[in-house]
Specification:
Length: 93
């Protein structure tokens, strides 16, 4: 199965209402050598929702915030930064 068929038949239906699942599917594909024509073909497919189309295009655009977010999904959280954030916002809740 080529990657575009996988995205259309598996990823798009399973993640239609869950952005984090969709981003995880894209993360698996983002570093592969995919041509712009293949991305455009997938972008124009009616099986994708509007959100999936927009985020697909952003995910394969170098330097976009969406791409950076998708790539950072599996980064480990540094405990000190987590504690600093907790202390900073603890009194505001």
């Amino acid at each position: 199965m080529i990657w575009s068929e996988y995205i259309i038949t598996v990823a798009a239906p399973h993640s239609r209402y869950n952005a984090q699942h969709w981003f995880r599917y894209l993360r698996k594909e983002i570093n592969k050598k995919i041509s712009k024509e293949q991305i455009e073909e997938l972008y124009n497919n009616k099986a994708l929702s509007a959100f999936q189309r927009v985020s697909l295009k952003a995910a394969f655009t170098e330097g976009s915030p969406t791409r950076e977010h998708i790539l950072s999904l599996n980064n480990k959280v540094i405990p000190n930064k987590l504690l600093i954030a907790r202390d900073k916002y603890e009194n505001k809740l």
